[in-house]
Design brief:
The protein is mainly α and 139 residues long. The protein has one domain (3-137). It has helices at 3-34, 38-41, 44-70, 77-103, 116-137. It starts with a helix and ends with a helix.
């Protein structure tokens, strides 16, 4: 199957699976809050990082789904595949950076894993830029 026809399927599969996982993660965070789990509630930084991971994961899953429904129509074969990869990578790396930073935060410092967040943001911005450019070009 060629890249333009395959990209919507890839984006849909990734987006819906990611949305399921990050929504379930959010439900687990709500349960941790409801059961007053100290591991989650007693560390404000961990609490914030995990909430950021959930929010970014859900929103970026939706971005990938929208791209799958509309983006590949605006790009040529290799361009659609590259754009999809950039968006999916950003949608993975950003929330993962927040989650890994929450594993062992140290005295108000999230640690080195938080560096994944700007890396993921650069991938995401590159993908979004490609979609925006293609939409202006009318491809």
């Amino acid at each position: 199957m060629n890249a333009p026809a395959d990209e919507p399927r890839r984006s849909a599969r990734f987006g819906w699976t990611s949305l399921l996982l990050w929504s379930t993660f959010g439900l687990l965070l709500e349960a941790a809050h409801g059961f007053k789990l100290g591991l989650y509630l007693d560390d404000d930084l961990r609490h914030s990082l995990l909430r950021l991971a959930h929010a970014h994961g859900v929103i970026l899953s939706l971005v990938v789904i929208v791209y799958g429904r509309s983006g590949p129509a605006h790009a040529d074969g290799r361009g659609a595949r590259l754009t999809g990869r950039l968006l999916r990578a950003g949608a993975c790396v950003i929330p993962l950076g927040f989650v890994l930073s929450a594993v062992r935060p140290h005295e108000g410092d999230p640690g080195l894993p938080v560096l994944l967040v700007p890396l993921g943001a650069a991938l995401l911005i590159a993908g979004l830029g490609r979609v925006a450019w293609a939409s202006w070009r009318g491809l």
